[in-house]
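ok here's Methylthioribulose-1-phosphate dehydratase, seq below lol
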Amino acid sequence: MTGAELPDLAEAGAVLAAEAARFASFGWMRGTSGNLSVVTGREPLRLAVTASALDKGELTAADVVLVDGEGAAVAGGRPSAEAALHARVVRLTGAGAVVHVHTVASVAMARRRPGGIVLKGLEILKGLGLPADGPEVVLPVIGNSQDMRVLGDRLAAAREPRMPAVVVAGHGLYVWGADPREARHRTEVVEWLLELELVEGPGPAGGR
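and the structure came out like this:
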């Protein structure tokens, strides 16, 4: 499946179950945390989102909910409470898939760099479509909220167009891509960058 091919709900469920199992195997979706989505329609906007309160390492193709462009359920069970934020990311960026994982490195680095995480001079930045020897880029950090409208507004205000990701303080990491495969690759790259920053030590605080 590519970004140009929109899946039906059954195909989307199978893809999301496989992606969730992969992330869970890394320890990035512990318990029932985290959620994934893939766009299944653009006119009107529809997303398949992993169902709420399920172990992400044990999902089946049926464990997804179809939501509209505001994150409200259209078909299936109960979507993640963050489905509205997935829909907002898609509307903002034109992405075809969104990944949300709860990683230790993302939470720790948000505490260490609340103003944003500056990245430069690393070969793996090519995995985000950025030059290894280019100018610095900032991975934004935003404050958490239980109100997805508020959180979406914060994401929209802080978003760096060159960086397909944002860290939510005290919460986790959101990453997006044209399709689930690209979103997965970008998630793995961003998490690698966060882990590197974490092990290199505190350094100067405050981000930018």
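fwiw The mean pLDDT is 93. kinda neat tbh
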